[in-house]
Design brief:
The protein is of the alpha+beta class. It is built from eight helices and twelve strands. The structure holds zinc ion.
Amino acid sequence: MPNYGMHRRKSRLPVSRMLCQKDPSLHLTSMDYYFYNTDARSIEGPPRPRFRILIDRGFAAVGGDRRRFGEQLHQLKQDDILLMYEDKVGVVAVGRVRERWDGKSHTNPWYYTPVEMRDFTGGACEYHIKVEWFPDLSGNPITLKVLRQRFGSAGFMPRGTVKKIVKYRAEIEEMVEELRPTPLPTRAAIDLSAPAPERVETTTYRILRDTAKALYIKDLHEYQCQICGHTIELPDGKRYAEAHHIQPLGGPHNGPDVIGNILCVCPNHHAELDYGVSAITVSALRSSRGHAVDPEYVEYHNRFIYNSKDE
Ligand SMILES: [Zn+2]
């Protein structure tokens, strides 16, 4: 029997395993879409525009009066989608809210300069919320003109700092779908124990949680499973594979989103890894130039995820 880099063990479903794609809060809420306006009017110092800071560091920021501005972040839930709008440029990134606002007032700015903050009405405070910006459209933004053409409204203009999208919500959702670098089919049977309505939410989450790095790794391996080499050819000629974070993202594992922690795998092997059915042997993985799997995360998988019966 060929060695695929996995030692198969008899399946024993773990009771307390945290699946990397599961998020319990997801089942309680559905996501909303918002415009998030970068605060071009308040930004004086270079570099302009400054939204790159937000994309690279994974957050959204507002500044000034806490009640007028900071508390706008209160309305955002985990998994809500933000369309970042830079004045005179357009939508420069789309992002997924990572967690609820922490409610903290920061006097050390990440986004504004101290001088800009000094002039804010209501106090020199900045407020942050974690956002995973995907995709980064800063090189090819969706201009206001395009938005207006597409949605056919003369009054179509993002206003306010954080503004929920109600009008054209379905159209915006569709647009965001199109922006994903690689369209993926839905994965219906993601959790066999979950009732049907929850599956829908889980599927949505799964699509959106594919990070830029995960897409990069899948591209690098040409959508071939690093364990068995299998790829799924879709009717439209595209290919399908999944990205697995070896040390899962989120609690309790808190693995990082770095390429050394990501594998490109087929759905079967993804499920086996999630459920701890198999150990990983680095040397047996299919490799690709530019992608080094970090043994540290493999070690984590083999120690804490792999559900060995004999050890
Ligand atoms: Zn496979």
